[in-house]
Amino acid sequence: MAWDIAGMAAVASIGDTPDAIFESLCRRRSGIGPLRAFDAAKYRTRRAYEIDDRGDGGDRSFRATRWLRTVIEAALADAGLEANGALYPVMVGTTLREQRSAELWWRHAAPRPDPDRLDFADALRDVPQAGAVHTIACACAASLCALGMAADSIDLGLADTVIVAGTDALTESAFGTIDRVQTGAPDALRPFDSDRAGMIMGEGAVAVVLRAAGAGRRHARVRGVGMNCDARHATAPDPASIRDVIADAHRRAGVDPGEIDLVMLHGSGTHLNDAVEASVLADVFGACTPRPAMTAIKSMTGHTLGGSGLLSLIVAAVAMRRGSVPPILGLTDPIAEAATLNLAREVMPANPAVAQIDAFGFGGINAVAVIEKGSL
């Protein structure tokens, strides 16, 4: 089976459309900046990849919801699905939902929010094309898990079109937790570099319109999505499970490793995650000639949490259309585990036809998608 991405949209710290984000990546434009959402003096890490939309009044409630509405409406318009009475299921991958809105109220920095509006289902009720809304909270693999569930829904005949999205805004509780548990205090996210010091949160939202294959124009075709959850450790990735989910994605897509031209790495910038991902990929693609190009966009967008996998997928779709792969910013001395990988240190001219997208979350929640070049 296969499914087409008929429309797509995204907003992140480095751009507000898929093409703008791609161009920023190729220009090595990072979204990192001084932490603005809350008092940075409380934390060791004092920088983040934030969307600059707060104005002069301090942090605001419901930013994640506003981005979600914006990208869903833009993706529908991109797909040519204007409001005509049809309703489409919506699957939203997220890690934090609207936790920041509740924090602002708790800190007396904003009025008490309507509890119903903390639920994306209620928040999207006035989007004319939005049908039943399902929130998928699968940590940092959430939006790719949502993509897999949407594909299953189409295969089961439950819908012929599904809106898949992801959104997350910085929250102080999550930022503070990460700041405490990481051994270092990174000033930037540097995936696969020997001097990487850990993960830094980013903000963003992304949406795609997924339709049964052959329904019309497409940015890319989804060939298969693999998902698993090993639950072996709260934070440490398990190499066997990551190897298994990659193999499952390849099997579902009907490809072997030698047919993958591009890998969008999870690349969280943490010591263990990068080492495990690199070692597994070195094993999976070790016999391939040539080896696929690989890049990690979190080096410029930060870790956008629940939407990060789908954001990487959109960047892959643009890369296949434009014939180039953006670099990994800050990669000067790759880790030993990545020695045999074809990591993009500069903009890499390429003509990828098949791409693999990795997303690995806390608790061993893993998702990998395989897509092929679109027709646009």
UniProtKB/TrEMBL annotation:
Name the GO cellular-component terms: cytosol
- The superkingdom listed in its UniProt entry is Bacteria
Secretion signal: which residues? none
Q: Which Pfam families match?
A: ketoacyl-synt, Ketoacyl-synt_C
Quote the SUPFAM superfamilies the UniProt record gives: Thiolase-like
Which pathway does it take part in?
Lipid metabolism; mycolic acid biosynthesis
InterPro entries with a match to the protein in the record? Beta-ketoacyl_synthase, Ketoacyl_synth_C, Ketoacyl_synth_N, PKS_Beta-ketoAc_synthase_dom, Thiolase-like
Descriptive protein name? 3-oxoacyl-[acyl-carrier-protein] synthase 2
